[in-house]
Amino acid sequence: FMMKRGSSSPRGRVLCILIVIDAWWFLVFRLIPWSLASSYYPAQLSSWPAVLYWIVGAATAILFFASVVLHELGHSVVAMHYKIPVRSITLFIFGGIAQIGSEPPSAVSEFWIAIAGPAVSFALAGLFALLQPLVGAAAPLLALAQYLAYINGALGLFNLIPGFPLDGGRVFRAIVWAVTHNLHRATAVAANVGKFVSFLFIGLGVWLFLTGDWIDGMWIAFIGWFLQNAASSQLEQQQLEDMLTGHTVAEAMTRSYTAVPADTTLQELVDDHILGTGRSLVVEQANNDIAGLLSVPRIKAIQRDRWPSTTVGQVMIPMSQLKALDPDAELWSALGEMQRDNVSQLPVIADHHVAGLLTRESIASFLHTLHELGLRQGPFGPPTNA
């Protein structure tokens, strides 16, 4: 693992899949050895020297870390089997999540992708259980194997809770999808069930807190809060997809941009074009072909005293590094591309000329217009009049 320049998250690759460690994960990574060394292992074997508790606790944390990665790799390998790209695996405070590039193509593939993670966890629990007789003579190794068998089994069972977006919720979505033959309906049902499960967690956490078990109570309520937010986000994502499906890039793109020669200085650009507009810019070459794209934040990154001597062509993003959209492209797919590439705007090219810019702001404005006109997507079908 290494630190990427400009990023606060360590990252590495396993099976060509990017592994990103969220900063919150390190809190868990520190708490696990402390908890095991100060309470769990001393309760199991009180005769160990203190340093051994910390050594075994640290080894447990590392192997638990590896177990979570393997759990997510289970999802990822099956996704790749179905020709679905896997963008990354992120480890965070509650475990991990595999970011796949698209929805599964069928209910069957969704089922197998979802069930693969818990299957790996159960396999690891079985492996550590089988190792226990082999290491029984070494108490530290036996205690380590026992804990890892327990924690991997618990991880598999927890993820099978039918609360979307947990693995169990995705398995449930796959079943509803297979019955209804409608992914949108299945997602809405699974997300609402997920919200119900999250409220059960929150209620249990509050009850435990009020009865004196405040640490477990807060932790369980926090998990419920996290699941509620995740399920709500999934519903909002589904509603956004419903609104944008059936619309094209041309409907949402903006034509409010400025075209300037590549040899224009930043000072000229700011004085003559940007002040009072804040527009994104499309840069033209002499033959009217598009050279690249420049935005106000990119200009602000250049020191003010360099603006008179720095040209637009020197700081623009070249077209060779930009994706271009077709005006007839599906709007929802275009938004997905922007999210995957972490960009806020893309040029729209027709007949080798710029037809407009698709920006997050123009998409938000388009959604506002749909709402104002009373146009919305049907609950599980094509656009309808409200």
Describe, in plain words, how this protein is organized in 3D.
- This protein has 386 residues and is α+β, with helices and mostly antiparallel strands.
- Helix content is 57%, strand content 15%.
- The chain contains 13 helices and 13 strands.
- The strands form 4 sheets. The protein has a 5-stranded mixed sheet. The chain has a 4-stranded mixed sheet with strand order 6-7-8-9. A two-stranded antiparallel sheet has the order 10-11.
- Helix 5 runs antiparallel to helix 6 (183-210).
- It is elongated and about 80 Å long.
- The two termini are 51 Å apart.
> Main β-sheet, in a few words?
5 strands, mixed
- Shape by Cα distribution: elongated
Q: Give the overall average pLDDT.
A: 84
Order of helices and strands: EEEHHEEHHHHHHEHEEHHEHEEHEE
Distance between the termini: 51 Å
How many β-strand stretches?
13
Counting DSSP H or I runs of 4 or more residues, the number of helices is: 13
Strands of the largest sheet, in order across it?
1-2-3-4-5
Topology:
Elements: E1 2-3, E2 10-14, E3 17-21, H1 23-44, H2 50-81, E4 86-92, E5 95-100, H3 107-131, H4 139-159, H5 167-180, H6 183-210, H7 214-244, H8 249-252, E6 258-261, H9 266-274, E7 281-284, E8 290-294, H10 296-300, H11 312-315, E9 317-318, H12 331-341, E10 345-350, E11 353-359, H13 360-372, E12 375-377, E13 383-385
Quick overview of this protein structure:
The protein has helices at residues 23-44, 50-81, 107-131, 139-159, 167-180, 183-210, 214-244, 249-252, 266-274, 296-300, 312-315, 331-341, 360-372, and strands at 2-3, 10-14, 17-21, 86-92, 95-100, 258-261, 281-284, 290-294, 317-318, 345-350, 353-359, 375-377, 383-385. It is an alpha+beta fold.
